[in-house]
Amino acid sequence: MHRGEQHLVWVKSTYTDSGSCVEWARPEGAVLVRDSKRPQGARIPVQPAAWSALVDWVKE
């Protein structure tokens, strides 16, 4: 568990209509990604710059 994770705000895409997607949270200096169907499961840490690049790519 990431330090302070109990206070994180998890975000889900507004484009999701099935409820099956990823969620992300932004603790200081990091991005955590998890499966929305398994919120107690694994969290994948991603560098903020890599997350931003992924989001920009998806928007294109």
From TrEMBL:
Stretches assigned to the DUF397 domain: 8-59
Record's InterPro entries?
Answer: DUF397
Per its record, how is this protein called by name? DUF397 domain-containing protein
Organism (species): Streptomyces camponoticapitis
